[in-house]
Amino acid sequence: MDLGLQGRRAIVCASSAGLGKACAAALAREGCDVVINGRDAARLEATAQEFAHAFGRKPRTVQADLNTAAGRRALLDACPEPDILVTNNAGPPPGTPADFDHAAWIAALEANLLAPIELIMAVVDGMRQRRFGRIVNITSAVVKSPRLGMSLSVTARTGLTAFCKGLQRETVADNVTINNLLPQHIDTGRQLQMAHRLMRERGIGFDEARALQAKMVRAGRLGRPEEVGDACAYLCSVQASFISGQNLQVDGGSYDGLI
Fold first, then answer.
1. Domain that includes residue 206, residue range
2. DSSP E strands: which ranges in 107-195?
3. pTM of the predicted model, to two decimals?
4. 79-102 pLDDT tens trace
């Protein structure tokens, strides 16, 4: 299927590794002019070279911290009129409310609520004027299945989801859609961190921890990053113009709710 994205301009946040990289790769494969971003210069350049080899075109790179105004400005300066914005950022640490002080809450809100909102608001008016825009937020399955042990993530990402649900009611008439990807148990560095946490908590080895992770998924395996990337590319496609304000779970069928 031709997704109609050839030549479209895309900003993909936090895309030198993990889910952001997978989304950027899927869009680059479809012919998008992609801007990738990360804080580690060496890893960012390695990803750019990998894309150049795989897709025949090197993406623009922006070394920047999205949690700062200067970092966000650098990203927007590299692509002032994007057709696509994929927001993404490192998730806050797991833990219950008692584990965190005021500063930790503020940091989570800055990274996973306010930073994406500022990026969205910086580009959405231009998208509306050009009559094409796709905004995809990479959030988390905890938005629909809150867990006390993921309190920071639940709070910040649910706030972003609510904000975007309201905003898309105004933008979709101008062919600007806003949707959220809710990944869970995808085989990235985050899952490795969670595996080591299981090892510490249960006194088990690495292989056993990884087996427990897979057992938590109805599909019986961890998801692949490229499966998230492909879902992102579809939400950005011309075919997805009537899909907006939605939360697409990429979780191997693990969500127990009906809606």
1. 187-222
2. 133-138, 176-183
3. 0.95
4. 999 999 999 999 999 899 999 999
